[in-house]
Design brief:
This protein has helices at 2-39, 44-58, 60-69, 73-114, 127-149, 184-197, 217-224, 238-243, 245-254, 281-284, 293-298, 339-346, and strands at residues 153-161, 168-173, 201-204, 232-234, 258-259, 263-267, 272-276, 305-309, 325-328, 352-356, 359-364, 382-390. With 392 residues, it is of the alpha/beta class. The protein has two domains: 2-148, no CATH class; 153-390, Purple Acid Phosphatase, chain A, domain 2 (4-Layer Sandwich), CATH 3.60.21. Strand 3 (201-204), helix 7 and strand 4 (232-234) form a beta-alpha-beta unit. Helix 1 crosses helix 4 (73-114) and helix 3 (60-69) packs antiparallel against helix 4.
């Protein structure tokens, strides 16, 4: 009975999420159309054509998923690029459009309060300006963000510890989101960059795959080419569960990673423990951990340096004294400005190191790929190099 209740609750939550998302997404498109219609005198035929295009864009995520499931992969890939680039564009259009709306409203208030003619700023009242300005800004930001998303940065941090017995180099990838957009060429680029860094260990801190992971065996083979002397370790992110956990785990294992699901390993050569926990989304999908994070970490209190792999950069205060370094991802640093403002408010550290008197104890990756739109704005993708140096 409990199983069926959990399944029902999960389906209900997913339906509420999708209804809410598509309702809001549709409203953004209505906003776009209203601004367009007020700016230009369009014929009925053009209006109908634009409406049909906007409807296609609203439901493109669903069409993409259905198309891939039916084996129409080429069409799904093409629509992914169009639909998700449009998604970035329309969100940015909304952002800049609201700025122009606020500017016009502010100008109106100032003119009323001061009782002065502000005709110098009359262009702010032009309807065409209120459409063209956000249109141009959104296009320029998407254009810039497309190239930023392809420019992977190598971030390096160095940590000293008297717990390790040999210097250790870990390379972290996170939130690659392999799927219809992140494919062979992008993954090959990531692998080649990691090879040059010559790591002892590679870790993936979740969301290696996206919601669409059908027919990706060739990409698993590319990842499998990445060899390290002391192993490759991965944990689940929320998207592994969205993609279908069994299918996702199979792909990750074929890629040569050992998956740590509420378990850990001890690497004697360095006196280092690596412990991984499932993402919180696992609970909603009916995978309740058999052991708590605190209990799991207590099992590895052997005097070694302890690295906790945890997808979301949330610190469990009861666990804080039980690990030395937590490696996380998930935030993408917002991926698209201004979403970075939201992630900065919610997470204790949306990117980079969170420090105390002992140095860095949480590192949050900006992510190595992209989710949804293949665009990043002021949040470039990264591969992280963590050098843990023996302290004498």
């Amino acid at each position: 009975m409990g199983f069926f209740l959990k399944k029902f609750f999960r389906i209900l939550c997913m339906r509420i999420f999708f209804i809410t998302f598509f309702s809001l997404y549709a409203l953004i498109h209505v906003y776009f159309f209203i601004k367009l219609k007020s700016a230009f005198n369009l014929s009925i035929l053009i209006q109908v054509t634009i409406i049909l295009f906007l409807l296609l864009m609203v439901f493109s995520p669903v069409i993409i998923r259905i198309s891939e499931k039916e084996g129409l992969e080429t069409f799904a890939i093409l629509l992914s690029w169009i639909g998700y680039l449009w998604m970035a564009f329309i969100f940015l259009f909304l952002f800049f459009g609201l700025i122009t709306d606020f500017g016009r409203f502010l100008l109106f208030l100032i003119s009323k309060v001061m009782g002065r003619d502000l005709s110098l700023f009359s262009f702010l009242g032009l309807k065409k300006f209120h459409f063209i300005f956000p249109l141009v800004c959104a296009f320029l930001f998407v254009f810039y963000g497309y190239f930023e998303a392809r420019n992977i940065k190598i971030e390096k941090i160095t940590i000293e510890s008297d717990k390790i017995i040999n210097n250790l180099r870990i390379v972290q990838i996170s939130d690659v989101h392999i799927g219809l957009i992140i494919r062979n060429d992008r993954v090959r680029n990531i692998v080649e960059k990691i090879k040059i860094l010559d790591p002892d260990i590679v870790v993936s801190t979740g969301d290696l795959v996206d919601g669409q992971i059908d027919r990706l065996n060739s990409i698993a083979e590319i990842l499998k080419e990445l060899k390290t002397p002391f192993g490759k370790y991965a944990i689940t992110g929320n998207h592994e569960f969205y993609a279908g956990i069994n299918q996702a785990l199979s792909f990750i294992e074929k890629s040569g990673f050992k998956i740590l699901r509420n378990e850990g390993v001890y690497i004697e050569n360095f006196n280092v423990n690596i412990v991984g926990v499932d993402d919180l989304e696992s609970i909603r999908f009916g995978f309740k951990p058999k052991i708590s994070e605190v209990e799991l970490l207590k099992n590895f209190q052997n005097g070694g340096y302890l690295i906790l792999l945890k997808h979301r950069p949330l610190i469990n205060e009861q666990s804080r004294s039980l690990f030395d370094l937590q490696l996380s991802g998930h935030t993408h640093k917002g991926q698209l400005f201004p979403f970075s403002i939201i992630t900065a408010l919610y997470y204790p550290k949306q990117a980079g190191c969170l420090r105390d008197i002992n140095g860095c104890y949480l590192y949050t990756s900006r992510g190595t790929g992209t989710w949804g739109p293949p665009v990043r704005i002021f949040a470039p993708p990264e591969i992280t190099v963590i050098d843990i140096i023996r302290k004498f």
